[in-house]
Amino acid sequence: xxxxxxxxxxxxxxxxxxxxxxxxxxxxxxxxxxxxxxxxxxxxxxxxxxxxxxxxxxxxxxxxxxxxxxxxxxxxxxxxxxxxxxxxxxxxxxxxxxxxxxxxxxxxxxxxxxxxxxxxxxxxxxxxxxxxxxxxxxxxxxxxxxxxxxxxxxxxxxxxxxxxxxxxxxxxxxxxxxxxxxxxxxxxxxxxxxxxxxxxxxxxxxxxxxxxxxxxxxxxxxxxxxxxxxxxxxxxxxxxxxxxxxxxxxxxxxxxxxxxxxxxxxxxxxxxxxxxxxxxxxxxxxxxxxxxxxxxxxxxxxxxxxxxxxxxxxxxxxxxxxxxxxxxxxxxxxxxxxxxxxxxxxxxxxxxxxxxxxxxxxxxxxxxxxxxxxxxxxxxxxxxxxxxxxxxxxxxxxxxxxxxxxxxxxxxxxxxxxxxxxxxxxxxx
Length: 429
Prior knowledge:
Helices cover about 45% and strands about 15% of the residues. By secondary structure, the chain is an alpha/beta fold. The strands form 3 sheets. A 6-stranded parallel β-sheet has the order 1-11-10-9-12-13, with helices on both faces. Strands 6-5-4-7-8 form a 5-stranded parallel β-sheet, sandwiched between helices. The longest helix is centred in the N-terminal third of the chain and has 19 residues, at about 80-100. It is globular and about 85 Å long. The chain starts with a strand and ends with a helix. The mean pLDDT is about 95.
């Protein structure tokens, strides 16, 4: 991995490089994505099945697009019992964590005759997108469905690209059933997003679409926002390790590669105060890459977006981490809890050398659907809050309104909205 001294220019160049991975930077795909989404909107199943045939090589009909009970039973026969046990244990941890996020409606009444409150209502339906292609992600199935289920969403639909055999990967399908998906459809890509956003003869329209995908999926979600809600526009995966001289270079190298293997656009960054650690991590990375199965992807990822930044001080390293605002941030320092208090921007924070990033990906419980491309400065991980709506509740008695009606009328008149003022005034003529 390249080793760079952290200074103003190197930090600026790194940020500019990382921002190029933002889905909004790929305007050459936009027209194609819009064409796909609009055709699905207009032609429904016909367009959906045509694109699935063209892109996935699978012939679908209204009778075969939805996963059947028989296909579910076959998937359970194919999944190893050991993996099923792991899925269920992970599911228990994820559900337990998200149940602590659940909010309830509240009301506050006062003696003068007012009652204010907030009513929490789950959205009626959501669509969950689960990627296929270069890897299979049953863990993403759990992370997307569980918070929706905990929130109380009545109808959870999942879409995922079919394999060449026209079926959903057994691990993915079993995870969907275990998590509580109501229906699973064998479609993917921008066409699946269009189907969820506008509905077709076979797939109902939903209120919200969540889940990561490739550039076509990301741009399709962006294009349908407003017709439906979405979680975010997800970019490529990323990890930043903030370490000092106490860190184990072998652990750090392994953790950097755990994200670099996702795809060629993934970023893996080490920010350290130790030049010696930087050199050792670089050597360990080279050794691991020689051994790991996704070597080609790893080499491309590291060539494009792999960096080791050497900072003059711990504070400089912390400042860089906050500016990069990484999806995953590992803190491997002498006192990681102290450093954590200084972190303002990160999707998920992992503390200490035994809190490796894959722990969060699969098992610990917090959601692994996280803000990317610096959006951790203003976005949060997927949560139960993403699947509920909040309605304000307002009640005033006549006596309570009478005490303040002149204030309201004065405010309305100051804005030259006389009908507003009149709406209050007529009650006290």
